[in-house]
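Structural prep section.
Before we set up the soaks we want a predicted structure of the protein with magnesium ion in place, mainly to decide which crystallisation condition to try first. Input record follows.
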Amino acid sequence: EGVTYGLLPRPCRVLVLLNPQSGTGRALQLFQSHVQPMLTEANIAFTVFVTERPNHAHDFVQNGDLSSWNALVVMAGDGLMFEVVNGLMKRQDWESALKKPLCILPGGSGNALAASINHYAGNEPAIKEELLTNCTYILCKGLHTPMDLVSLRTASGKRLFSFLSFGWGFISDVDITSERYRKLGNARFTMGTVQCLAKLEVYKGRLSYLPVGETSASSSPYSEQSSSSGQSGHHTCYRNGHPIRILPQTAPGVSHVPEATWPEDSLLVPFNQPVPQHWTVEPEEEFIAIFAIYQSHLGADYVMAPKAKLHDGSIHLFYLKAGVSRTALLKLFLAIQKGTHMDLNYPQLRYIPVRAFRIEPFVAAGLMTVDGEMLPCEPVQGQVHNQLCRIIGG
Ligand code: ADP
Ligand code: MG
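Run finished without errors. Recording the tokens verbatim:
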């Protein structure tokens, strides 16, 4: 597929969406001291939108007039970028809105996208102010490229768009447990890991996926019409051939945009149908963690998928089957900081690039996360959409 690169015009004007609460609470101060002088030098005019509450950026991006901006810059953690992506998707004009380049400047404690872009640019690993300066420099250069998004569907009927990761189990537990240590910045993940290791749990469920390179036999694409239970408002999932019922939920994440206008999830079938024949169903049903990531970094110093690229059309699926000791798990976490975890050759750790996946928990246990944000535990499936939005990087 052709890749179209672009360059921000000069002079240009960007909107900076900034979460003053993210990370150590210094985003505004860091913007003024580190970012502002470089933007001025590069002839990039900016307006700063300081968020006052969760979903403020989401609502603004969903409803606001964005025509004055050449790019939308997020100065926060991955959580605010998630709001922006999903806010854009809920616009009537989402398709043209997604052509506007996005940019991430690390201002949070979870800065995975910023660290990934720093890595793709060929820079040495960096954290804190150094990472911020690198990312600001990348913005000043102004090169933008396509980025994949993953469309995620939950059994209760939510559809979310994700740029970074979907997880269930250990890693997601760490992500959420560590939020209370946000003021420590990136070190929050070390604290969370130690705490979660103490109460190590096993999660039961079924994992299915479509490996990259598996040529698809014709499958019936996802549509609400083909879901017999869609009308009555609940979905049925299968566990060992027996249907289990998931009750519907009304929650944010349900869009006002007619489903039909969104990109079609041609690889997925409704939850009330088993996954297509050419998918792989993992025989193991006990997991410590399942983690699907589409960028290289899980955090500023966690390199989960070193080979991932912005638009490789792949979901990098990792899963850790039950039977790993705490010591081995700690070793694994230390190795992820260098990206050498696969070299440990743990038989319980599997990695496979896929285009789509489905996770069906047998009981609603443990946390799920989308781009680091929490989701109640329920069946989830997703597929990659190649080059759906644009990001400044390179
Ligand atoms: P971090 O990386 O530290 O988690 P994020 O930017 O990801 O920082 O933000 C964390 C959460 O804060 C997100 O869920 C976001 O919706 C929420 N949020 C955004 N703006 C505000 C605000 N002004 N006050 C409180 N929470 C906010
Ligand atoms: Mg976050």
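Observations: The pocket of adenosine-5'-diphosphate (ligand 1) is lined by residues 19-23, 51-54, 56, 76-80, 83, 108-110, 182, 373 (CB under 6 Å).
Flagged for discussion at group meeting.
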